[in-house]
């Protein structure tokens, strides 16, 4: 299984919006959870949002009400709509797929929110 970016991060001003998308390809049977993580400079990687194959979602407290995770199970694609972005959202964002007990990671993409 491989995670591939379909849309990348970038530079956005405070209050702006950005949408990330990621797709899983290869051996995709048994995907349990797809999610987004991020790592800011000098900090540990943290969960941003995740979505189960059944459609259940959960979010980090810091992004609730601003970020929305969605997906298309048929296409094994996942989206992260990020609104009302803040400078503290600046980080490298990673796509994650949890399949049959194994975590798969996409390459990170940098999101920079300018103040």
- Share of helix, binned: under 10%
Order of helices and strands: EEEEEEEEEEE
Number of strands: 11
Low-confidence stretches: none
Structural category = mainly beta
Give the overall average pLDDT.
91
- N- to C-terminal distance: 38 Å
Major beta sheet, specifics? 7 strands, mixed
Radius of gyration, CA atoms, in whole angstroms: 13 Å
Query: What's the helix count?
Result: 0
Principal-axes geometry comes out as globular
Strand content range: over 45%
Description:
It is a single chain. By secondary structure, the chain is mainly beta. It contains no helices and 11 strands. The strands form 2 sheets. Strands 2, 4, 5, 6, 9, 10 and 11 form a 7-stranded mixed sheet that branches. The chain has a 4-stranded antiparallel sheet with strand order 1-3-8-7, with no helix packed on it. A hairpin with a 4-residue loop joins β7 and β8 (77-82). It starts with a strand and ends with a strand. The model has no long low-confidence stretch (mean pLDDT 91).
Offer a concise description of the structure:
This protein has no helices and 11 strands.
Give the helix/strand layout.
Layout: E1 2-7, E2 11-13, E3 18-25, E4 31-39, E5 46-52, E6 57-59, E7 67-72, E8 77-82, E9 91-99, E10 102-105, E11 109-114
Parallel strand pairs: 2-11
Antiparallel strand pairs: 1-3, 3-8, 4-5, 4-9, 5-6, 7-8, 9-10, 9-11
């Amino acid at each position: 299984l491989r995670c591939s970016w379909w849309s990348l991060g970038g530079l956005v001003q405070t209050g702006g919006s950005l949408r990330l998308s990621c797709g899983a390809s290869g051996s995709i049977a048994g995907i349990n959870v797809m999610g987004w993580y991020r790592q800011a400079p000098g900090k540990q990687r943290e969960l941003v949002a995740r979505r189960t194959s059944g459609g259940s979602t959960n979010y980090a407290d810091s992004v609730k009400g601003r970020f929305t995770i969605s997906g298309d199970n048929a296409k094994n694609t996942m989206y992260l709509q990020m609104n009302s972005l803040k400078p503290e959202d600046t980080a490298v964002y990673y796509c994650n797929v949890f399949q049959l007990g194994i975590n798969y990671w996409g390459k990170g993409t940098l999101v920079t929110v300018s103040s």
